[in-house]
Protein 1
Amino acid sequence: MVLKQAAEVGEAVKTLLLEEELTVEQMSMDLNISKQLGSHIKNDRRRMQQDVAKASIQAYDCPAYATDLIHEFSGGYTPPVLRGKAVDWENRLAVEDFAVREVQEVIAILENIRPILNRKPGETTKEERERIAQVTDEIYDAEAALANLKITLAKNYNIPLKKRHENRKVVWKAKEWFA
């Protein structure tokens, strides 16, 4: 994956301004950019450069904003903030139900394809490889649902996700999951 050098992130900036109760002027000062550039970025008249995006993620702990930014700069490789009408995103229990449902779907499919996964990849049929590809689709869905649940919980309970992430990295290193 190659990160984009610049991306249109006006909607993400609007989210940041709303959730952090910032003005374009304050954000621009925080990011060491002109007020005019801040306004242009907010209104998608200019793309945000990668260095400004990095500085903004370091400056603010706004999970929806960071998720939107990372999604845009990664070319869609990471899950987006889901804002569709199928889930009441303001209702943390609805978001939790959605996430649980998506994770349960992945678990059910994985249990179903366990015999396929026990074999070497070269010994699988075309149909079996398609079933494995389908489980990756479901994993994407679950990953997006969990990312959005994390955003919802952080917002509702004022949980600083950057700090939580740093704490988890220590745990992952101790468990030898992360080098």
Protein 2
Amino acid sequence: MRPRDDGARLGGSGGAPEERRRPGVPGSAVPHRKDPAEALAEAVRGATPEQLPERLCAAAVELLPVAGASVSLRSEGVPVLVGASDDTAAGVAEMQATLGEGPCVCAAETTAAVFAGDLTAGQDMARWPVYAQQATGAGVRAAYSLPLGDSAVCVGTFDLYGTDPGELTGPDLHIARLLASALTTALMSLPRGEEEIGRAGGFWLDGLAAGHSEIQQAIGMIMAQLGIDADEALARLRGHAFACGRTALEMAHDVVAHRKRFHEERA
């Protein structure tokens, strides 16, 4: 994921966001320069479907007292990153997919918003100890995840990251939900392209997440290699990726390419 510029990165310095607030500190914003509706319209104007998640993540950083944002699809228990405001936000999203824990994973499972206002101590750190340690090491000390979809189905999550502990205010939550609504519309309604309009089941997001199908293929291969079920195969994939300092997706690439084979552990 290519960053927009150093000043826009998580915890970066300089640029317009710092003129409006202390970076990443919820509740510290002064009145917004832009009307949220106007900023939302500007973000989607002229965008191709593939550009929408990243543009709306960038809009979130402009409108909210957060330092980063990402969008992930819900895919067979593994969050699939489809857009982020910068490299660090993308990395923290991939971190949750690898670990199988964190606000993003919880929000997708419960279809309810999950807010972790302080990953450095207390119940948020205790709830996801490994994720909290890894996230704070990357400069993220607060994370907020909103499910995308409706009461019947969750298609993904919209995730916001702060560099300091704190809670989002009511007005901030209203803006976050406006952005989440726009993302839900994009993820559920936009076709992949003109050739696919009207074709049953054709959504542009299939193309965005195509590479992540390798995770499911890798899980199947690990199941065959070890004679285990899908949940255990995913746990093995995640555990080995974490131990090697890699993402679950990177490890899946190696499994599918036959560069990595799992063997039964001997006592």
Protein 3
Amino acid sequence: MTDWMQVVDAHGDTERVPVLLNLVEREEAPEAWEELWDRLCLHGETVSPASFAALPRLAGLAPSTAQALELAGAIVRGTLQHPDGEVLLAGCPEVLRGLHDLVDQQLQSLPTEYDRVFGDLLALAGQYHWSAALEGFTDDFYTLSCPHCGAEVTIAIGDYGYYSAIRDWDRGDIERRELLPARAEELHDPGRWMHATAVRDGQQRLAEGIRHLFGRAECPTCASAFSIADTYTSANLPPVLETS
């Protein structure tokens, strides 16, 4: 049983969230959802201890209430935004598994916001950095340091092309090198299941983007090749995760 007097929300309050949860559970105040978002996932990204404490009750509503499933997904996506996020999540593995299954079912229904829901699935699988990074591969850009020479390299994956380059703010992306996408049969997790999910749901742009993201790039400065996904992961996971 959660002691809500000890759990603060995004506004530093301790008593309002359980009241709002009671209201939405009883379907007495549809407008309470707006305030719940404000207190549990402020601006769509700021989470708090109350956010994680609310997950079991949101998960209970999620099978029948779209707002609950979306809010729960947004909270999990914000895990790395809170210093204790992973610790707080560790206390509800069954809740996360249930939410993961619901989100996967939602993906198979091909929702309008497929990319956002796919990001929720990534977060629920513990892939928080990819959940934050992937934007559907329309015009995704990643800035990486070459692991061999340290040069700043821009990676483009999307409508502008699939390349590595040096970004010049006057001339644009120069010294472009085509990316070498991974073949589907050579992918390793998490890229393998990410790609398989996109293919299953007929999301060809997403599947092609994932193959490039988990492929290799050539540094325009030193001409060495490196793994895009490994380099991005090393730069964006907290140190505690890199060494675990």
Protein 4
Amino acid sequence: MKIYRIYLKNNNIKINKKIVINNIKQVHYLNKVVRIKHNDLIEIFNNSKYVYHAKIINLKKNNIHMKIIKIIETKKESFLQLHLGQVISKKQNMDFTIQKSVELGVKTITPLISEKCYKKYKNDVYEKKITRWKKIAESACCQCQRNILPKINNITELKKWCIEQTKSLKIFFNPYSSISIKKLPKKHIKNIRLLIGSEHGFSSIEIELLKKNKFYDILLGPRILRTETASITAISILQFKYGDI
């Protein structure tokens, strides 16, 4: 029997504790979408290394009561600390990138504004987008059974992001580079900062700045990939080379 998962921002969960779910969207999902019943089990994750099995004890229109009956320690997180810097792309493409990168184990995502960014918005629009992307990341964690929500940073200027001090291996992809991804260091790497540009790539000034700040200038194959394809391809390769795939 499939056990449905939900995220709860609650650090005080223990055996036999009774919990009330009153989030409108979660209540609707459990009541109307998956149609849970009395005594059904729900799996809860709360940004820790544990998951919690809870039995439904009371169903109401606006809230759901459940009781914790089991605590399980899990190991779903990749040991590769992968930070994705993604230049903002079109809505559906950006949503796809957020979703799939979470499924592939990315720990941090920073949406970026570059000189050739798809579109620039006002700050209040950006705030709404961050909220949306965090919800997408939460849903992706529910689907792929990750228990730790990846961090979605505030939208940042590319120039500011690339000069941040870090001990990570830093990579960006350039279709005009002569260096294959196979040429990356073979030694064990724990931290990677991966930069993916927009559909229009990077300006010459940005490329010089990236190289100056010790980003590896890498060619991701002979074909020009869409930005969302490049993100998923690069993350998959890096997880295979240094992570848990």
